[in-house]
Fold these 2 entries.
Entry 1:
Amino acid sequence: MTEVWLVLTNCPDEHAADRIALALVEQRLAACVNRLAPVQSIYRWQGNVERATEVPLLVKTTRERYGDVEQAIRHLHPYDVPEIIALPITAGYAAYLRWIESETARSVMA
């Protein structure tokens, strides 16, 4: 079975989150993207401590598709340096993991 990954990113607003989530699923780079409730982030950026409301995305994909997922997020994301973190899924319901694999499989041209 293909290695399934969970990719995390935070967006500045719902519009950006929806645009990224929809693009990833439409392009078959992700089987599913969960948009979570807004969170308050505190971080250091360019020497200053910042606060922002952000919308987290949980992207279900595969290791094989990670490079394309990262590229798409970087292209669509309004931040100069977006958070893009990938975590391998080490266990899960096998049928669900197979579904992620099938939904993100590269199409084969005949």
Entry 2:
Amino acid sequence: MTRCFFIFFLLAFASVSGFSQTKLVEISTNLGSMKFKLYDDTPKHRDAFIELAREGYYNGTLFYRVIQDFLIQGGSKSSRGAAPGKRIGYGDPDKTVDDEILPKYFHKKGALCAPRQPDEINPFKQSDISQFYIVKGRVHTMGEIDTMEIAVNRPIRNKIVQSIMTPEVRDELKRLKEEKKVDEFRELAQQVKDKIETEYKLNTGVIEFSETQREAYTTTGGYPDLDGKFTIFGECISGFEVIDKIAALSTDKNNRPFTDVKITVTILN
């Protein structure tokens, strides 16, 4: 009796507290199956994906965009039954959700992500959940990761420096130096430095790869160029070899595989 009451209490607590078990899904294809866990802190994407999967929306669609060392993309309804060689459209503009781009999730191999329209026509970065992509990427060296940071961050810093180190400020620093006003020179120089650093740290375009990112990108691989630009709402937990098989397929000029890879999505819990 006591045990039954305890189980009942746990179930009641879970219902009241909003506790949710991590959702697991299986994406099956004619080349094998992959299992993914969906993140609880991207609930809009998780719930929309689950709803469409339960409706059978993705079933019978294709992985229609395949690029080795980049990604495999599928789920678009226009790919279902598409004739060989037909170019597949974007997706369903009526099935969008607000972005849930979280810095802690990144484009490591096996990341399950939502595509979207470009910024110029989609400034709020809303995702098209009527399809999805899975990162294949490649393994990078630590030097390549460093170079990516420099290539993005150096122009940002240079622009900030130019905006703060105006001709007037430079002239004032030069004057203080020539007049040997050391304390005033150091004070102004420190103010300029602090302002540059503050604006640099607040700039949303700056990238700094964490140790976790660096480890993943230099071991299992991924595609860091996409970080911060798209919502990642899950990750592969088994079936990585299937990602490799699909990514290695020969494709036409539109990156559609010559061999159709049909999709079935199943909610496992």
